[in-house]
Amino acid sequence: MNTNKYLFEDAPIPKAVATMAIPTMISMLVVVIYNMADTFFIGQTGDPMQVAAVSLATPVFMVFMALGNLFGIGGSSAISRALGEKNQERARQISSFCCYASLGLGIIMAAVFLIGMNFILKMIGASENTIDYAREYLSYIAFGGPFIMFGTAFGNILRGEGASKESMIGNLIGTVTNIILDPVMILGFGWGVAGAAIATVIGNIAASAFYTGYFLLKKSSLSIHIKDFRMGSRIALSVTSIGIPASLNNILMSCANIILNLALADYGDTPVAAMGVAMKSNMLVVLLQIGLCAGIQPLIGYNYGAKNKERLMKIFRFTGICAVVMGTILTVAMVIARQFLIQAFINDPEVISYGIQMVIALQMSGPVIGILFLCINTIQGMGKALPSLILTICRQGLVFIPSVFILNGIFGLEGVIYAQPVADYLSIVLSVFLCLGLFKKIEQRKEAIASA
Asked: How far is the C-alpha of 295 from the C-alpha of 403, rounded, in Å?
């Protein structure tokens, strides 16, 4: 049984954080490698239009992962709080609900994508040079939608009960499968973007098979059995109240990327390709810090459910220090290696020139962006839906999207390139303000109980 009581309640803070966060960070590192591999091997075709097509299509693909996070992050938060309250049966019901809800919604979304393909391609701004490639890529991704959503959801669900290692293994299986198949299908078979999409789907099927086997072999204290499926007793609400803001964050990121690509497309297909490569490179900085902060969310949720504010705060402070140190080191490394990174994807002089400038712009918030992710995951772990929703719509919606339009109107292409760091810094300030407010309320509630 994987409740990991010692880890949640008594282990030294550095050990608890490392045990939960390192496997999650490794999973994120593998995701970075997988995303880079897709772009790298497509870049080896020597066709910037295929690179641009995948850059245009990636935000749409991310919608499936976003909806998987609805049940994954929402479910993980609800499960860790239930375990903190010593309610094992509720934790099993939550995980079963997340299993069938993610599969069902995955099937519905696959049908929506296939039926609405022409509208989607028009919406993301595919040009006559990229539309056929984007259509090919997204058609295969749509068929794999249920597996993408299930695999994304249960990578998070396992962390909710403390099984970070098993979550990492499932992620590794899916990603390594994808990476191995990429060169075979993209270059060996000459399938280009279609090969990249097929490899992605097969990788997600492999990950889903591992997670299913993990439950069938009864290695988990949770359940995917239909007899445990429940929507009542506020189960669906406890998952979606946190899952919707979390998934909305990913969906807004996709929308923001689409709007960014539309703004860049006014300056030609080359800036779109360059930003796609730059953002792939920047994923190393961003996803490792997301992995660190997402890894500790079950610790936050458990101790919040157990009303152990002192341990919760120690976890928060220690993780914040780790995030800033790691972010600074990664940012410096990225700036130093910027030309090599861009050139490694595609050896096109114009793409390289744009890409170097874009990498530098994206790194401007690198040292402190982890603070934002720490605050978001802490708020989600505590089950605070409204503050989580506010942060979600702020960074990629209320701040970033207007920044693209405003800075584009004032500074042109330069303004579009620097919109993301502007949005990041404003969101970091708001996230700290919201987190400190919640901590103050917890302290006031604790004092009120003590004086009663």
From this structure: 31
* Residue 381 and residue 241 in contact, taking contact as beta carbons nearer than 8 Å: no
pLDDT value of residue 198: 94
- Which alpha helices (DSSP H) does 217-268 contain, by range? 235-265
pLDDT at res. 450: 65
What number of other Cβ atoms are within 10 A of residue 58's Cβ? 24
Q: How many domains does the chain have?
A: 1
> Rounded to whole angstroms, how far apart are CA atoms 426 and 438?
19
145/55 Cα distance (integer angstroms): 19
Listed in sequence order, the DSSP H helices in 44-87 are 48-84
The amino acid that residue 336 corresponds to is I
Tokens of 260: 């960014």
Say which residue the tokens 């503050």 belong to.
387
Q: How confident is the model at residue 144, as a pLDDT?
A: 92
* pLDDT tens, position by position, 351-368: 888 888 888 998 999 999
Residue 2: pLDDT band with limits 50, 70, 90: very low
d(CA 314, CA 318): 6
In the chain, the amino acid numbered 173 is: I
Domain range holding 31?
Answer: 5-451
Name 144's Cβ contacts closer than 8 Å, sequence gap at least 6: 110, 197, 200, 201, 204, 205
φ, ψ of residue 74 to 5 degrees: the values are -60, -45
Phi-psi region of 231 (alpha: psi -120 to 50; beta: other; left: phi over 0): alpha
How big is the chain by its Cα radius of gyration, in Å? 21
pLDDT tens, residue by residue, 262-315: 888 888 878 888 887 888 778 888 889 988 998 888 898 888 888 888 899 999
Distance between start and end Cα atoms, the chain: 38
pLDDT, tens only, 3-53: 467 888 888 999 999 988 888 888 778 777 777 777 778 877 777 788 778
| Closest-CA residue to 59 (of 429, 401, 435) | 401
- Phi-psi sector, 410: left (phi>0), alpha (psi -120 to 50), beta: alpha
Helix (H, G, I), strand (E, B) or coil at 86: coil
CB 360 within 8 A of CB 309: no
Q: What is the pTM of this model?
A: 0.69
Alpha-carbon torsion angle 263, 32, 368, 166, nearest 10: 140
* Residues 383-427 pLDDT 10s: 787 787 787 777 777 788 888 899 999 999 889 889 989 989 999
Q: Give the angle 60-63-64 at the CA atoms, nearest 5°.
A: 115
Block residue for tokens 């360059």:
274
